[in-house]
Specification:
- The structure is a single chain.
- This protein has one domain.
- Helices cover 84% and strands 0% of the residues.
- It is built from five helices and no strands.
- It is rod-shaped.
Length: 158
């Protein structure tokens, strides 16, 4: 302990007797050396806990945002898959009426045209081209019966 520390102890505890001065010196020395480092370490631990809590909150926010983005991507992917499956079903329906009566062909063409107008956004270029080819073939087959004009799905987009 420094001389200033002894001066402080004797001023505070000096009137109470030598035993109190010694006890005060021991308590003061303990508080000065161990308590300050203990309290300093406790302060660091508290700051670390607060930092960890803040970092954890930020990580959870980012994680939640990424999960929402992935959910949207999967929903869009699911819609595209469903649309491609429906396009295939409509192409099969066109093929199934290919050699049918004129009214059956025209009904299938109408149904495909309505479906295409509602779902073309979700088809990739290759699927659109295949759908247009099937649509054109069915339309040409219907012309065998009559020269009715229908716009092709690709023409309706423009």
């Amino acid at each position: 302990m420094t001389p200033e520390d002894w001066k402080f102890i004797t001023q505070v505890f000096g009137s109470a007797g030598i035993g109190t001065v010694v006890a005060g010196a021991i308590i003061y020395a303990f508080l000065k050396t161990y308590a300050s480092s203990y309290l300093s370490e406790k302060g660091k631990n508290l700051a670390t806990k607060e930092d960890i809590a803040n970092i954890t909150r930020i990580v959870e926010e980012v994680k939640s945002e990424l999960q929402a983005q992935h959910a949207l991507r999967f929903a869009a992917l699911d819609k595209r898959l469903q649309t491609h499956q429906e396009a295939f079903t409509h192409m099969i329906s066109l093929a199934s009426v290919f050699y049918s009566e004129k009214e059956d062909i025209l009904a299938a063409i109408r149904e495909c045209r309505i479906w295409y107008a509602e779902h073309a956004l979700f088809l990739d270029p290759q699927a659109k081209a295949a759908f247009d080819s099937a649509f054109k073939a069915a339309q040409q087959q219907s012309w065998r019966y009559a020269k009715e004009s229908y716009k092709l799905p690709a023409e309706e987009e423009n």
